[in-house]
Amino acid sequence: MQKNVLFTITLILTFGVVSNVLTAERIVEQGSLTHYIAGRLYLNEGNIKKAIEEFEKAVSLDESSISLHKDLLSLYTLEEDYEGIEREAKKIIELGTPDLDTYLKLSNIYMIKGNISQAQLYIQKALELDSNNIELRLLLSRLYLQTGLDKKAIKELRRALKIEPKSILVYLTLASYFESKERYNKALKIYKKAHGLDKEDIQILGKIGDIYLKMGNNKKALAYFEEVLDRDPDDLGALYSLALIYEDQCNWEQAVYYLEKINSIQEADLWEIKLYLGFLYLQLKRCEDARRILSEAIEIKPDESNLWYFLGIAEASLDNYEEAIESYRMAIKYNPQNYDAYFNLGVCYDRLRKYEESYMAFKKVIEINPKHASAHNYLGYSWADRGINLDEAYGLIQKALILEPNNGAYIDSLGWVYYRQGRYKLALQQLKRAIKLAKDPVIFEHLGDTYLRLDKKQQAIEYYKKALDIDSSNEKLRGKLKALNSLPE
């Protein structure tokens, strides 16, 4: 199917669809004429296959007839019989009377076969017959680009501009080339020339906006995309690009605004937009909206791992841990290497106190991605917090710290392992390091616990209060302070 489409498109872009009207010329050979007439009758009835059979018989009896070969070439083109097209085109060339159409058809065949050098050869021969044909020069330049002959491609495009200095198509091809090479200033200059030739073409405006976006000039890009929307409020490319710009600025609300417009225009089709929307809803803590839009996307694309993954995040954010677990399992089903899904799965199991399942999930993360520092730390801290596997916990946390040596949470985990091992002075040393890097109520509480073990009651009270200042709803902390007679009833 792809080859047929390529063939048809190429014909349309160059010289139009082949006519099915065959020009009858004088056929010298009597037997050949009989088959020719029979073929014409079949053709009038719409029976192309039978017509081809008769024309093939006619050609076999009069192989020198140029008109018969050309008629048969046209019939093979209608049937998209590539072998027949190649055979007849070569025969016409062999007879010494090739025309533009013959060379073009033969070039098309070699393009379909992937023999680009041969395709180039026949386009060059066609240009010998019509050197001012800019469509041919455009086609040849594209073939040169496919084979890495960039200089030749640019040369052909510049020749085309000499023939037709106002050809927007040539300018756009040139600009696209420089854009692909990340020569954005050059591409921008050419796109602006094209825009000068046709100020009404909003696609060119969008291209200029794209270049500014790639150059990191969001301000100018935004201006061009807004101009596109002034002319066409439903232009999907401009809407999407504006969403990207506002996301880059962490302006989630504006990004959502443009994505919701796209979703309203293409509601049934673009699951990718729904995924993007779901991600941004999560940034805005609009977890119900995220769950809704991601569920809609899953109906369209049920086998997309990322959709299930973000749905899991939405469910977990709503404290729906069982539903989140199911979503993460589906994410893993469609992408067994999705270690982020395994990590979040482990967190959900931990929240539900299903510790063994949690440990298995974190181990799987480490198996897939040995450099996942958070998985090493989470598993090590979980064991330390429960007072089990302390040596192994210590090793895991040390690996996390090798990967991220200045992570305050990981240093806190190391201090907590020392605490569980009864090595309180070492624990205090690490926890003091941790609190300088992260003002976390958990670290303050750990410091309080450690000072209490070192019989330093006042310091313990001080750090418990600091923790409570940050986490005022922590009843466990309140209980500790009451036990130390430092908090009124």
Characteristic terms for this protein:
elongated; mainly alpha; 489 residues; Serine Threonine Protein Phosphatase 5, Tetratricopeptide repeat; disordered N terminus; 28 helices
Span from first to last CA? Answer: 80 Å
The main pleated sheet reads as: none
CA radius of gyration is: 36 Å
Outline type: elongated
- Care to count the β-strands? 0
Based on helices, strands and strand pairing, what is the structural class? mainly alpha
Approximately what portion of the residues adopt beta-strand conformation?
A: under 5%
Helix content: over 70%
Quaternary assembly: single chain
Give me the CATH fold name of the domain at 1-130.
Answer: Serine Threonine Protein Phosphatase 5, Tetratricopeptide repeat
Instruction: Let me know the average pLDDT.
Output: 90
Helix and strand run: HHHHHHHHHHHHHHHHHHHHHHHHHHHH
Going by CATH, the homologous superfamily of the domain at 1-130 would be: Tetratricopeptide repeat domain
CATH architecture of the domain at 1-130: Alpha Horseshoe
Low-pLDDT stretches: 1-28
Number of helices: 28
Specify the CATH class of the domain at 1-130. Mainly Alpha
